[in-house]
Amino acid sequence: MPRTDFTISTPDGDAAAALHTPDGDGPWPGVLLYPDAGGVRTAIHDMAAHLASLGYAVLLPDVYHRHGDWAPFDFATVFSDQPERARLMGMVRSLTPEFVAVDAEAWVTALLERPEVGGRAVGTTGYCMGGVMSLRTAATQPERVAAAASFHGGNLATDDPASVHRLADRIRAEVYVAGATDDDSFPDEQKQRLGDALSAAGVSATLETYPAAHGFAVPDAPTHDDDAEQRHWDALHRLFGANL
Predict the structure, then answer these.
(1) 73 DSSP 8-state letter
(2) Structural Rg of the chain based on CA atoms
(3) Can you name the residues that pair with 127 across neighbouring β-strands?
(4) Can you give 156-203 as a three-state secondary structure string?
(5) Is residue 219 very low, low, confident or very high in pLDDT (cuts 50, 70, 90)?
(6) Mind listing the pLDDT tens digit for each residue in 223-235?
(7) Measured between alpha carbons, how far is 30 from 158 in angstroms, rounded to an integer?
(8) CA distance 171 to 142
(9) Locate the Dienelactone hydrolase domain: which residues (predicted)?
């Protein structure tokens, strides 16, 4: 699949980005893909390319752009290497709800302005921390996000006043959330709380739990699951196909 690397201007500086597109002539529906905690790397580019092969122009931005030219993480060792784990978690914590919302406006604007992208609204999808970012983008860009997905997203409905489930009444997109049976970051009480919030807000939403572990959809995650990954692609194609 073709890939175009370019730069997106944000209020906090320039951010590297890549647009993966199908072969042939566009325009195509636009999708914003948020990575997991490891950030943009080869495995995430491969995921964006696969989604592009299904007929979408997929934007992959560097969500850690405020950290400059940061060194990539090795997912095989990052959680057992304490200094690397500390660096990873520090970068994750730096993505405050305010920064995510500011960047979301920049990402969606840049995607819709690309000549390869058609339509006036986009889809979003995210993995792990990216699941929260996907839903927050739908809430903060309600008129420009038509479909939003989260896969093994954690902490989607916590007691934190800034928890994304508290923004359910702002969402206009159709929502799909897939948790995992083995995932302490999104237990049953959070699933219930998120579902209740979306339902009360009148959001069209599907919440499912895959028989897999946290990280099931990402190819270089130690907990990657082939069957769950394919199920997630099928779900995304249905969601975006119906709404974009």
Answers:
(1) P
(2) 16
(3) 151
(4) CCCCCCCCHHHHHHHCCCEEEEEEEEECCCCCHHHHHHHHHHHHHCCC
(5) very high
(6) 999 999 999 999 9
(7) 30
(8) 5
(9) 17-242
